[in-house]
Design a protein that fits this description.
Mean pLDDT: 85
Structural class: alpha+beta
Order of helices and strands: HEHEEEHEHHEH
Shape: globular
Number of helices: 6
Strand content: 15-25%
Low-confidence stretches: 1-21
Distance between the termini: 23 Å
Length: 171
């Protein structure tokens, strides 16, 4: 199930059109530690989800980010035996934990920030087995009534750091 949310995507797309040099345009820096990269990518997952659903939420959001921001992936690598290994995120990606109320608040704050790309996984994304059913459930639910199982953010390092503060790593 995808974690892509049209509201968040449209919000970010609006900022992209209005601000050149946004998250969508950032290119991989060479030789920088992920801790010094200009972009920060975090996935924040509901700490109360069972492990399988938490991993599913993170993987689905990572797929949505990779589709929307393919420049976050570095080039392929080749090992000493000649085998190719697909590119991984040059900015790294931290997987953090929060409760459901914090996730909802975090998503609200993040969508209000310029140059922050937001993906999310509302609860119906994990309970629906048919994608069209998920879209129908989403369309019939007011934003304030949604429960989020995870939120993913990509943006300027300082802006993302302020949003996620001292959230712990997911355990």
């Amino acid at each position: 199930m995808t974690a892509h949310n049209d509201t968040a995507h449209n919000h970010t797309a609006h900022h992209d059109a209005a601000h050149q040099g946004t998250v969508r345009d950032e290119v991989a820096p060479t030789g920088l530690s992920t801790r010094r990269a200009p972009l920060k990518w975090v996935l924040v997952v509901d700490e109360d989800l069972p492990a399988g659903r938490a991993v599913n939420a993170a993987a689905c959001m990572a797929a949505a980010v990779g589709r929307a921001l393919p420049h976050l992936l570095g080039g392929d690598g080749r090992d000493a035996s000649g085998h190719v290994h697909p590119g991984l995120p040059w900015a790294g990606c931290s997987v953090l934990a929060a409760d459901a109320a914090t996730l909802h608040s975090l998503r609200e704050k993040a969508t209000a920030k310029e140059d922050v790309f937001v993906v999310d996984m509302p609860e119906p994304a994990q309970t629906s087995r048919i994608y069209d059913e998920y879209l129908d459930l989403l369309a019939g639910t007011k934003h304030e009534d949604l429960t989020y199982h995870a939120v993913g953010l990509v943006g300027p390092r300082n802006r993302i750091g302020k949003l996620v503060g001292a959230l712990p790593l997911l355990r």
